[in-house]
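Q: Two folds, back to back.
A: First:
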Amino acid sequence: MKSTLILPAITGILCALCSCGSKSAPQRDFPFSANPSSKSFAEAPVSAERVVVGSDTLIVGRLTSSPETVTLLASELMDDLEIVKLENTDEALVGGGSIWVNDSRIIIYDGNAIKQFYRSGKYLGKIGAKGQGPGEYSIAPYYITVDEAAGRIYLLEYAATNLKIYDTTGVYVGSIPFPEKVHKGFFRIDNENGLLTVASLRFSGMSQLGPVWVQDFHGNVVSSVNRPEIAVEPDYSNEVYGGTTADGNGFTYSLFRVIPEADSLYAYADSCFRPDFTFDFGDKIPMHTLQSLPQFYVVIGYGAPVQTGEGSYQLPHLTPFVIDRYTLRGAPAVLMLDNLGTLTMDRGWSDHQNAEYFSWCIDPGDLLDCLEAAPESHPLANEEGMKRMRDLKETINLDDNNYIIIGKWKR
């Protein structure tokens, strides 16, 4: 199995349109735009069609023209946009990293430890530890969920033989075995019925279950999806993504393939796994991922790999191409956090560990630089958001712990 990682880089994104260097750290690139588009998504052209394939209706996106970039407004897409300042104590300090959010908690893995906080920012402590012992994770967490009612935190590693279980203080209490190794994936747990639905990256040439299966808590398979065409070469550069369906019933499944080819985003619900969306790139297919938000399909293309170290690379993340599920309008789109004035992200805004939420973990100096680089006015901005942006700039302390910006996608 290849070990070189070529990642779509959620946390280490390259090639920003605007470079907002931190006053407290070396200059870095950030996915914030200093010049957001004045065009709204309502001005985007129709860029997809509904196609009947057997018993399924598939939405197919196409680039029939070169539409201008448009601006999505957070106030129209999210229930709220919350700014959380994490507790500023030595044990609570975090760097950038993977972040999981639910209605009550924020969980961050910064490469050293998994730390959890209340949504207020109060530090709760670590979850497990890195190592080879019982309850420890050897590489990193790939996916985490919290079941508040059951008082449990569930952790899936990069290459996992079981699902690790912790109590809500982060203490290891046990595990659920898998019938076979999960090479990256995500899951949904049903404590009431004692069932676990696992979505996994599938490697070709190996005896294995399908990309999605349902099992009990003892590792016994209840049902499985058979989709051999979804298998990829045994290379950990490949990725698997879970997204949301429009009605919230089930989830979507999509891949990043290190060797790009035509593919689809699938929807899984009620034991049915069907193609839901695809994008016609024409003759030359780039490295890409297809993602799903409640109101949109998102097509993310990547540029040529950039070497970041010996044997490791990152991919420049281009401005997402967005297609509305209902109107089928589509265009490259930036996201203006108009609840925060004119702060605008040109990429990375759809990449999140929990697809229900928009979330961003950012150093206070980096946030301040990007706020100061944002325009003082914009045709799509609102006065309440502009006031909030001005007030926030006045209150940021460069010695603070990181800030978390959170919004929940509307349905």
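A: Second:
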Amino acid sequence: MHSHNQNNDTMKKLFTAVLICLATSAHALQVSDSLFISPSDNVANLLMSAADYDSWILNDEFQTTNKPTVLTSKLYQYFKDDFDMIMFITNEQDRPSTIPYYGINSSIANGVKGIGKSIFNYSSYFGSEGKLFSVMYLPYLNAIKYGPTLHEFCHCWANFAIPTVVSGHWGICGGNTKGQLGGFEQSTLMTNVDGIANKYSVESFGVNANGGNGVPYNEMELYLMGMLPIDSVHEFDAFPEVDSESFQYYDESHTRISFLANKRNHYTQASLIELLGKREPDYKTSQKEFRALFVVLSKQPLTSDEWAAYESGINWFCQTSDDGLSWLYNFWEATRGLGSIDPADLSLSLKSAPSGFVDVDMPVDVRILPSTIICSESFRIFNLSGQEVTDLNGSLPYGIYIVRTANASKKVWVN
């Protein structure tokens, strides 16, 4: 593509700007020597040296070093402070044996009262100017779709409220349904089992989780997340002191679990408010739409197939509609259609036009002449909302535009 310094303002701004290479099916936007943005503009790829990448996995450096702050600070060299969450994903098909968990959340800021957390903000250590409140890590690709993605997002708000036998999770705690952070379905609770006053039985459940992205958020989780009012939370019991040796399957079919508990806490809407205080902001004014930056860590630039896999998983998780799968829940479904996560249009969050390079696979030659565009084949110009720009004599606002031909498309930066 060639450009000439002419008086036509629109064409000058459009085609003398730095070119961003993005063929729709194959090429990612290269922001720097080590950072790329996916063809669909919804996920970034941050390259690490082979030694750093291997060390990250081998030594679990998300938890054991300051590497996450180094990586996020690097990201903020290129991105504006537009994101509520950053999710790192290592480019592994399966969970590495050296990583002892399936996902993890690090809360770095909290401005919500009444959920059991103090008010704090350490986002500046991560390069944010105050917006970022969570950094998460999934150690392998399939975790995006099958979990624990919902689980880790839930940890931004829960469980810091209810004392349980498993820190940060529901443990042996009831709910209207099983929760993303564990817990049993309250309606299945049986008391005085075998005639023993402190023996209980419930349908099988997990104390930390209940099946990846296969269960939606329960009422208490949605309340803490700011999606529902306290009036929507039904009464439930929690057992913070349990004889661990008594915790076992109660029947041969493994459909029920029994346990002995020395303490049983019963929670009502009123007692939750007494314990935690009112949630501020409440569900009417709480944030329900979130901006997330998904970043794949890898040793080498992602292949076309790898880009497609990450784009597909993230698009599924963040879509604001029913996915048609009865056994999986995306974020919108898990929040009953009340919450959403936006990963899109990462190019618009760049601080400035990145250093570009010519896309040799782009079969079009666009040249600027005074008030005339000459190209080797027909093309159209669109903004990132999909609206076609038809007035080529006007002034284009600052941002990213797409020049599209019959065979390919290219993004250009107007600054």
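Q: And?
A: Residues 93 and 378 are 41 Å apart (CA to CA).
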